[in-house]
Amino acid sequence: MDPVSQGAFGAIFAQTISNKKKILVGSIIGFLAGLAPDLDILIRSNSDPLLKLEYHRQFTHSLIFIPLGALIVTLFLRFFTRKYLSWKETYFYCFIGYATHGFLDACTSYGTQLLWPFTDERISWNNISVVDPLLTIPIIFFIIIAILKQNKLITFFGLLYIFLYLAIGFFQENRAEKIGESIANLRGHASKRLTVKPSLGNLLLWKVIYEYNDFYYVDAVRLLSKSEYCKGARIKKLDTSIRFMELSQNSQQYMDIQRFDWFSQGYLGVGNQKNIITDVRYSAVPNEVDGLWGIQINPKKDKSKHVDWVVNRTNYKAKWKRFFDLILGKGCEEID
Predict the structure, then answer these.
(1) 3-class DSSP state for residue 305?
(2) How far apart are CA 170 and CA 9, in angstroms?
(3) Residue 245 has what pLDDT?
(4) Adjacent-strand bridge partners of 219
(5) What is the pTM for the complete model shown?
(6) Kind and range of the H or E element at 212?
(7) For residues 105 and 112, is the Cβ–Cβ distance under 8 A?
(8) In 3-state terms, what secondary structure has residue 219?
(9) What digits encode the pLDDT tens for the residues 223-281?
(10) Residue 89 φ then ψ, to 5°
(11) Beta partners for 123?
(12) Cα distance between residue 179 and residue 204, in whole Å
């Protein structure tokens, strides 16, 4: 989730254990603690572009790390809070704020290792977008009003809004899955697996991905009172026994493909771009297969060299227009 949302969640949950006189300082500490787990983005390497993917949302986001993470933040903030709070109070605010981070991230589709080190499974509940102003802005409003009024009842109204919004996300996800199954059935496809995720910043337009006959089919569904289907495209599923056969299995690039496959939860596709493997889950327009990022393979590289990381930032103006056309239902049709 974006940093503003993470901080806002940490702040509003920290407010629940603060008294009226300390609601401001409690909110600030909760906000900072809510941001802290994302300091793992500092773990990166100039030579290994996938290192940042392995460690982002890993140990700092796991449930078992919450007490230690909260302690680290407490020790850092204690110099600033000792005039206003006891050590115990500071720790509890940090604990609440820190604990919200991993759970919020797990609500997105990116994947969060909540159960590290017992498993490296990337948990993703897919019920909210990684950026959603309709979730974040009202929370900030509740936080500010609660501070100004020194009224924790407003805080609990904010929590009610959070849980209601997340519940709507799960409801919409369930609807999107059923429509995705209907789309596959209409095409006569017995899909092996199906994944849905909300598009950027809303719970109205959803991306649907399913696998059939070594292809990923990508469509969009628009979910209002009636459901609409927005036909998309397909992309070849990566099969390393066919593509990149020239890579030795003990080469670094081959191992990097396996690492990227783990990060992408198996959704790797190969399109028309030469030697580029994309993460099919993410595209600027939800019914397209033009991935936001990927890795580029160069078989001529030395066996010890890593893959290259590529980011797709082309034609954003045109992509935004197509995205908003889908939001408005252009090119979509009703489906039962």
Answers:
(1) coil
(2) 19
(3) 82
(4) 208
(5) 0.93
(6) strand 205-212
(7) yes
(8) strand
(9) 999 999 999 999 999 998 788 888 888 999 999 999 999 999 999 999 877 789 999 99
(10) -60, -45
(11) 112
(12) 13
